[in-house]
Amino acid sequence: MYLFISIFFIPSILLSIQYHLHSLQQNFYNENNRYLKWEFSKWSHMFSLSSIFLLIFNLIHFFFPSQFLFFFNSVSLFFFFFQYKRRKKEQVKIPLQITNRLKRLMVTLGLFHMIPFFLFVFWPNYFFFFFFLSFLLTFEFFFVFLANVVNIPIEKYVFHYYKKKAMKKLSIMQHLEVIGITGSYGKTSSKNILNTILGVKYNSFATPKNYNTQYGLILTINQYLDKFEDYFIAEMGAFKKGRIKLLCDMVHPKYGILTSIGTAHLETFGSIKNIQQGKFELIESLPSDGVGILNMDDPNQVQYDLQNHCRIIWIAIQNEKADVIAHNITMDQDGMKFDVFFKKNQITYSFQTKLLGEANIYNILGALALGETLGLSYEELAKGVRKLQPIPHRLELKATGNTIIIDDAYNSNPVGSKMALDVLKLMDGLKVVVTPGMIELGDKQYEYNKNFGMLISEVADYVILIGKEQTKPILDGLLEKHFDCDKIMIKNDVKDAFPIIDTWKKSCQKTYILLENDLPDIYNE
């Protein structure tokens, strides 16, 4: 009887471990206590009702004959198993990545879970054995956290080993020059744009995907960087002050582009001033013969008291005092055309691109300013801009018949979301916005999302909000602007939006669907 019931514990515990490991990984292995904050944000993250009942039944086992204990354990485990089985089948945006770090974590967790079996060998009491198993099952979130803490010394050793290896490789590549790119928004787009433009003349390599942390840069250098590269473009991300400085001390950039300073990660930085200082760590780490690219339309960059005497090149669309200025911008669903005035040589040159959105004009201007400095001709710069391809999930157009999706699902922010709505506004047809809103905006989160809802009301014909709780500010903004309630739907999963949109479409009319942001699985309601 006990052997039979113990068989059910194993898959139940494994499913619970998988769920909490996935949460830990998506919360950057508890950096800034993100995992704990997420777990404690809702009791259902930490516990399942079945596991709680299971623990209670085992705790009060002495009130019941053993056959009742067997019955209660069997019923609870049955429901627990199928609850997690259903959870496992749910569609996830980013599946659990089986990395070496995760494997080390699983070994430590395995040792924790062997404790009840070791105790049973020396103390063969079935009641306490099942109580310990149910305790592990109920508090799995804590044991995942504890295993992560126990592994900290191991992870530090592994980190320093590979960091030393990466630094040795960089020291040998003396011809290589490093370009750092940071900012609250637009880092990845700016990185890819610069890499394409420099690629017209030079061998350049950019950090893949969103490898913008210490681990990401180390992995890139060790596994991807080639000895024949002329330029290494390093995207640099941070959640708090000091992190960009750490990255700069590792790779020593000579050139730097600061895309923008805004409210992204305000919750972890604490204030706009901290974000400002944190992002400028890149420019202040450049050598005296280095070059920094700054945005003169961004007051947070203009007002900063820069503690560095390197050369600064200012870009802008609005400010005529800048060194590289874009004007005569036209935009349609096929892309953009614009002119750029280069003050250094007093020349205006025309460019065209398949990319959309004013944000991409700034990203291109930064690349043009640095490209000119590094010796590319205006013809080469124009060729590079024409070669640019839309970056996945960043104002990427996807057409199927009369339906065009404007995919802006990657990491929305107040500035980017407004620009996405500006693009949608240009389109001629039925306009639908699908969004779960914006996150990690600290105490400004409600305000920014409500403003977003108010802006949506001026553009969209229909709105589908993903997640009832997290989109309440957007709904408040829509209702404040008297948006028709019958044209607002609330769903828990973005995939549920498309069947609804099909009922709204007219056969001969083009339909434009703006997908603004796609939150990680941990934000699913």
Describe the 3D structure:
Helices cover 49% and strands 16% of the residues. It has helices spanning 2-26, 34-40, 43-46, 49-59, 66-89, 100-113, 115-122, 126-138, 140-150, 152-172, 187-198, 214-223, 243-251, 266-269, 272-279, 281-284, 299-302, 358-373, 378-387, 414-426, 445-457, 472-480, 497-504, and strands at residues 177-182, 204-206, 231-235, 255-258, 291-295, 311-316, 324-332, 335-342, 347-353, 396-400, 403-408, 430-435, 462-466, 488-491, 511-516. The two termini are 38 Å apart. The chain has 3 domains: 2-150, no CATH class; 173-387, 3-Layer(aba) Sandwich (UDP-N-acetylmuramoyl-L-alanine:D-glutamate ligase); 396-523, Mur ligase, C-terminal domain (Protein-Tyrosine Phosphatase, Chain A), CATH 3.90.190.
Uncertain segments: none
- Determine the CATH superfamily of the largest domain: Mur-like, catalytic domain
Structural class of the secondary elements? alpha/beta
CATH class of the largest domain: Alpha Beta
Tally of individual domains: 3
CATH fold-level name of the largest domain: UDP-N-acetylmuramoyl-L-alanine:D-glutamate ligase
**Care to count the β-strands?**
15
Number of helices: 23
Shape: globular
Question: CA-to-CA gap between the ends?
Answer: 38 Å
What is the CATH architecture assignment of the largest domain? 3-Layer(aba) Sandwich
Query: What kind of sheet is the major sheet?
Result: 9 strands, mixed
